[in-house]
Design a protein that fits this description.
There is one protein chain. The protein has one domain. It is 35% helix and 24% strand. It contains six helices and nine strands; from the N terminus they run αββαβαβαβαββββα. The strands form two sheets. It has a seven-stranded mixed β-sheet with strand order 1-9-6-2-5-3-4, sandwiched between helices. A two-stranded antiparallel sheet has the order 7-8. β3, α3 and β4 form a beta-alpha-beta unit. The longest helix has 25 residues. The termini are far apart. 35% of the residues are buried.
Length: 232
């Protein structure tokens, strides 16, 4: 069922990107085989599905549990095996992500835990770093960029909560996938987890910069150098 739902997602994304986006994608190198952790910045609400598209195989996304409350869409998320992240209960999401990695699946995490501020990042959570250290799975960083003016904002109501979603519409949308990173260490060592979290975000920031460069009309799609090797 999960594989079928993944395959059904492809034509929807193809149609969305063909009608509403000018996709610009750069792969640093081929993805490794086996389980992996894809991490990205989060400028728009649509990002999880385009990162899943890049993953090229069934994957599970850590998504706010508010999305699981949406009729029909929430049912799709559950059946597809995506992981709800409830406020104050990150442990359950972490346990589910470990199980997915051990089952050989790809896990997609947005370390900021929320939509990115304009031209900046939220303070990153440590879940991706802890998952990488705990499982040994490679981390694949992704940097996403698009013009702020290319987003459409909508108010979404979930019970007593109202959130603002952002959707890229009729705009360039650039994604840069970096090389796999591997980290070794103790997932319970807070100092080490903090260092790995910072390293992951530095790689994402460098890839966002590369994506922004390719949004410029005069740019010849060059590939700027990645930050220094930060993986252990």
């Amino acid at each position: 069922m999960k594989t079928l739902l993944y395959l059904l997602m492809w034509p929807v994304l193809h149609l969305y990107s063909w009608l509403l986006l000018k996709l610009n994608i750069h792969h640093g190198e081929p993805l490794p085989h086996g389980p992996q952790i894809l991490v990205a910045n989060h400028p728009t609400t649509a990002d999880p599905f385009f990162v899943a598209w890049l993953a090229r195989g069934p994957s599970c996304i850590l998504i706010t549990e508010l999305a699981f409350r949406v009729p029909l869409f929430g049912a799709y998320l559950r059946r597809a095996g995506h992981i709800p992240v409830a406020m104050g209960n990150g442990r359950a999401a972490f346990t589910a992500a470990v199980a997915a990695i051990k089952a050989g699946r790809k896990v997609i995490i947005f370390p900021e835990g929320d939509l990115s501020p304009r031209d900046s990042f939220c303070k990153a959570h440590s879940g991706a770093a802890r998952l990488a250290l705990f499982t040994g799975a490679p981390v694949i960083p992704v940097g996403i960029a698009l013009p702020w003016e290319g987003m459409r904002f909508r108010k979404e109501v979930f019970g007593a909560e109202t959130v603002t979603s952002r959707w890229p519409v009729r705009t360039p949308y650039a994604m840069t996938m970096g090389r796999p990173l591997r980290f070794k260490g103790d997932a319970d060592d807070r100092t080490q987890v903090a260092a790995v979290t910072d390293a992951i975000m530095q790689h994402i920031a460098a890839l966002v910069h590369q994506s922004r460069l390719r949004l410029r009309p005069e740019h010849k799609h060059g590939f700027a150098p990645i930050v220094a090797d930060l993986a252990g």
